[in-house]
Amino acid sequence: MSISGRLARSQRRNSSPADSPVEVDLQGLIALRREARGFLLKPNRIRSSQAGRYISPYIGRGMTFAESRPYQPGDDVRHMDWRIMARTGKPHSKLFQEERERSILVWVDFRATMFFATRGRFKSVQAARGAAWIAWAARLNNDRIGGLLFSENNHWELRPRTGDKAVLRLIHALCEGATLNPGTPPAQSESNPMTQALVRLRRVTKPGSQIFLLSDFRNLDKTGEAHLQQLSKHNEIILLSLYDPLEKALPVAGLYPVDLGNGNQILNTANPNSRRHYASQFDQRQTHLENLSRRLAATQLTLSTQDEIVSTLQTTFQT
Predict the structure, then answer these.
(1) Phi, psi of 111 (to 5 degrees)
(2) Packing angle, helices 123-140 and 164-179, rounded to 10
(3) Residue 101: which of 50, 61, 57 has the closest Cα?
(4) Mapping DSSP to helix (H, G, I), strand (E, B) and coil, where does residue 57 land?
(5) CATH among 3.40.50.300, 3.60.40.10, 3.40.930.10, 3.40.50.410 for 3-48+101-316
(6) What is the C-alpha to C-alpha distance for residues 95 and 63, in angstroms, rounded to an integer?
(7) Is the Cβ–Cβ distance between 41 and 210 less than 8 Å?
(8) What pLDDT digit, counting tens, does each position of 46-95 carry?
(9) The pTM is what?
(10) What's the rounded Cα separation, in Å, for the pair 253 and 271?
């Protein structure tokens, strides 16, 4: 049996569905609402003056009072500041700051490589928990929440909406995506599922959105990077990169049975050169992703399957 298979079988016996490392629980994702209270998904910088439920830097006639200034010809008399006028004897007008709605999108990877962990939780479970927490934080700040979830064979496209119903429909989609059989052979296609998911993401994203991408980013090709580059021009990008410790470094020298999707094979970790090469490949992928994040002016978080993703998000977005 594969390493991940042994982990899954043993921990299913010892874990309730709510804290299972290999399964997503509906009630568990709903309960994350409590963990999202008091957190604001603040954008690092404003990329569009047309969207975002955060105070616009432009002074206008909105809902939130900003300041008063001396009356100027053409000002609306309905916005006269009578208190200051009574005190100074000079007419003043009230100015307001606009509050604008913002769309938050979660882009979640449920390809076969995400259904893996040797320690902690499956990457797919981590991604589902992180996406649910983000959705609740958006809801509690009255943002619109939407999502695009994908695997080799399926995709779920949820247009941004407001309210509890928007979060619950996303949570149901997360549960469905995270419980599909990862052993199902992918549909025969020459297209890269990740690239196709980014094409769909560009189609549903409105300028000024905040986009969270939760994935291991394996097989992200140049075309996919170009789509991310276009998205980053008018939106804020946050990359949540997930990995398992076994993907970072091989275990101690020995012979290990592994299942790579086409039957069990023996992994020999005794060769020191192979171990160094293996670790170097992981470091190169991480360096490439870090360089991509800098080009996108994006925020990047790298999390292990052993990390607590909710705590990491809370630390990152604490007010």
Answers:
(1) -70, 170
(2) 180
(3) 50
(4) strand
(5) 3.40.50.410
(6) 10
(7) yes
(8) 343 333 334 443 333 345 566 788 887 777 788 888 988 899 999 988 87
(9) 0.77
(10) 8
